[in-house]
Amino acid sequence: MKKLIFTLLFISAFALQAQIDRSKQPSPGPAPEIHLGTPQTFDMNNGLKVIVVENHKLPRVSYTLTIDNPLFAEGEKAGVSSLTGSMLGKGSVHIDKDSFNDEVDYMGASMNFGHSGAYASGLSKYAERILELMADAALHPDFKEDEFGKEKDLLLEGLKSNEKSVSATAKRVESALAYGKNSPQGEFVTEETVNRVSLEDVKNFYGNYFVPENAYLVIVGDVKFKDIRKQVEKHFKGWRKAAPPVANYAKPSDAQYTQINLVNMPNAVQSEIAVENLMDLRMSDADYFPAMLANKILGGGGEARLFLNLREDKGYTYGAYSRIGADLRTTSRFRAWASVRNEVTDSAVVAFLGEIDRITTDKVSAQELEVAKADYAGSFVMALEKPETIARYALLTKTQKLPENFYQTYLEKVEAVTAEQVLDAARKFFKGNQARIVVTGKAADIAENLEKVTFRGKKVPVRYYDKYANPIEKPQEKRIAEGVTVQSVLDSYIAAVGGVAKLETVKNMVSETKGTIQGMQLDIIAKNTSDGKVLTETAMMGNTMSKQVFNGKTGYVVQQGQRMELEGEKLEQMKDNAYPFPELELRNKETVTLKGIEEIDGKDAYAIQNGAYTSYYDVESGLKVFQVFTTEVNGQSLKQTFKFEDYQDVEGIKIPFKTIMDTGMGMEMELHTATVKFNEEIPEADFE
Amino acid sequence: MKQKFLPLALLVTAILPATAQQVSYEEYDLDNGLHVILHKDNTAPVITTAVMYHVGSKDEDPERTGFAHFFEHLLFEGTKNIERGQWFKIVTANGGQNNANTTQDRTYYYEVFPSNNLELGLWMESERMLHPVINQTGVETQNEVVKEEKRMRMDNQPYGQFATALFENLFDKHPYRWPIIGSMQHLDAAKLDEFLAFNDKFYVPNNAVLVVAGDLDTEKTKKMIRDYFGPIPRGKDIVRETFEETPITQVKKARFEDPNIQIPAILTAYRTPSMKERDAYVLDMISSILSDGKSSRLYKKLVDEEKKAMEVGAFNYALEDYGAYIIYALPLGGTSLDVLVAEIDEEVGKLQNELISERDYEKLQNKFESQFVNANSSIEGIANSLARYYMLYGDTKLINEEIDIYRSVTREDIREVARKYLNPNQRLLLEYVPEESENN
Q1: I want to staple A241 with a disulfide (CB 3.0 to 4.6 A). Which of A46, A637, B282, B338 is the partner?
Q2: Which fold has domain B252-434?
Q3: Do A355 and A298 contact (CB within 8 A), yes or no?
Q4: Does the ipTM exceed 0.90?
Q5: Superfamily for domain range B26-229
Q6: Which of A20, A222, A542 is opposite residue B227, by nearest beta carbon?
Q7: Phi-psi bin for A596: left (phi > 0), alpha (psi -120 to 50), beta?
Q8: Which residues of B touch A384 (CB under 8 A)?
Q9: How does pLDDT run across B211-269, given as a tens digit for each residue?
Q10: Which residues on chain A are in Cβ contact (under 8 Å) with B307?
């Protein structure tokens, strides 16, 4: 008997062991189905469609109102939609702005409004009040002239600050060229169009377009359908039934042949490249998933081909990506993009075209496809955790007319995609033969090489555009007049600021400069001597941040308490810039060269290069107006620029009192010189 | 019309009770002592597999500090069936994410996967518990990594050593007095045998909780857990020492020099009770009044209005055995540290002498309610909370009931707790200052 029990035990123990083989990594189970919960819906008589996803796990609720109107163009008053959006959410005709904001805060809720919808969320115990406040602010806005003025100024300021932005220009021109500048998707907002918008226009726009015909209200969270339905009906009943005006627009068309569209931005230190073509794809199409995976493999992230090629392999850029779109009613775009150094612009274009050629010629490898699927499925799944995602899917199912089980079977569909389907989709949507390669950059540096680019054995023609997508003639390179030399440019600069004799009286210069960076006060004190010594101290909010010292021979930098000795190239640069007026010395330096004439803010300037520094001297006035410093940070080339303005007379010498510095990392800083003094007593110890 | 709308609404919202929040879960023990908590939520096909071990820096030998954190690194080196260097690759190739962290009280490991990889997650964690590979190569590799981490996160980081400086001065007997990262000398001196012994002692099922949270099938999951974790042998019972501190009755002053900073900081720290005590919750609410948000008292006064401080903060660093209530400030311009202390004392004094207003109290309740709700908004967060409440608080139910503790706190409680713990003679005053440079 005993023996039997032992045997049974042995067997069961063995059986238990045999169920799993832990020496092997478990393989994934079948792709999970998505349990999104079945949304409950109802339609109101005024046209508003309501989708409710009850989720009682957490006592919170979110409301998303989306007005899915067909696209429309704003024409000569472009900007009216944006202004209408920013005028909403400032209380209502029933409750003033301050009380409205205070109550939202008190409830711990959050609320946002736009020209085609609104969003609110908070604890479900305040569910009805949050809905009521959101509906009230959205449906009964109090459009006030003073608020309108503020918002208009803000919008204009935003446009102005973007005027010289290469990336903003690139985005604008890329859409305008792809879709046509008078189309809903290609039109853009300018100072001129914003200035035409009046408060009356905002009211009209609101009246025409903020209507319930195409409106969806998605509610997710801890609410009961029965109750919320009553509340929605109560608070949205007053929204009068109306449809937006209908307009028809011509369907946009692709370029007839592959071409480079060069947008000239003389101030660009980097080129923005976008390879684009139009595409008609709906989410419900059979090739939707193959197309998404093709894009994932081409440029969908840090593991994709464009990134591996242009960044990891060639080091042209910090990142290169691509994206496709899909929409039921409108044409979308395929777009692959990167910001690259001027010098490698043409090579980068060639690399982009090469990758498009490769993915439309050869099948992707089984492993690439595998990883792309895992990555794609993984992010889909992780995103599902957020209630916002679930709400978005419920809405897309309606607006994109998707099969009811679209998201439930999403992962299976991803899994089923084959390499052949990916190739077919790539060929259909990445149109190598009709690509528009929009390059926004400095034509003087990049045009010559771009004109040599070939693709599939043919030369790719280059066409030129201005910042607002108007075709222009190829910008002609400026010729330097006979007799102009490094010497003559520097001489006329010296003459313009006061003359050799005057400058030579300056034994030292002490200047104080102020600026702000991210809201914090910055103070810079610089001491330069004519025998080539310098001390620069930078303080932030009154505390010394960094210090640079050069005694004519050796130098060091202290940053955040850490001292670094300067050597090699850095030491040389310090030496050249130590003098109050480096140009006096540069006249005698052999390696300094005259690079040509370039436009700085629309005016011609001579470019003089000294190692990593290029300085620009205005042809007309002789003054130094701009300087570019090229350096390398973590293997990436970085350009810092300085613009010099507001020259003022100090004891007969002209000094720029305003310097606009761009750190090269997307941060711009305005520096104002407070005082400049000559021939002060400076203790020698300062330079030790 | 405008008049009528608002007061009525306020009245209604103020008296509405909150809907109770329920995170459902099931918990049980395996024969080997492994505690298991399952939280089923099929909303999204996401699964978190997490293991919390009840071992932190406070369990270390005073001559071998840094062991607990060192293990958090060592246990990614591989197992009998997972080759060295493969751990992260397996996770990524299966669409997942993973990480780990160590505190004074516990060490936590977790993976998040699409739910069809639940078995993979269980396999990986059971491999780690059953037979991690601990050898000289791994120890040497991770020794370098940990040193690099210390350089990056502490030695080179402005204000990176404030916790070290604070805890070594606030505690005399309790192991909370040494830093989690520990001593590099101790780690260098440690022999492979000692690492193996530490593993045998603490990395055992009876000292761990496994949480599986998300899109799961309860029965199938239980079976897989039995299969993968059942065969892991139980370890010896762990006997923990207790340490009792003598109360501070006279202000302690200390100074620490950080070579990475330019702007000094003043830190005041009060020794407070275990995070399990009700008073610890009241202290959380006091922090919120003092420094949470732009309308909070210290922020509004010192940063916004008087511009005496660049930054100010108050928080309760609550741990299993004790806590540290910390209020700190960084001066702006020429403000002296003494002035900042005086300002802080004034605001704390108000809390000790006056009741907060009814409206402030309601706002506070709403804030904690919101925080509580959002803390449980991700599966990953729920998994961590379940493990923590079970292991450190000894009460898994707190996932649903902790808010009741906050709700029960009265305005009088806030005043009493401030009076009980936040007195000037009960604290440490730490001047955290830039290192004096030898060049000057």
Answers
A1: A46
A2: Cytochrome Bc1 Complex; Chain A, domain 1 (3.30.830)
A3: yes
A4: no
A5: Metalloenzyme, LuxS/M16 peptidase-like (3.30.830.10)
A6: A20
A7: left
A8: 43-46
A9: 999 999 999 999 999 999 999 999 999 999 999 999 999 999 999 988 777 778 999 99
A10: none
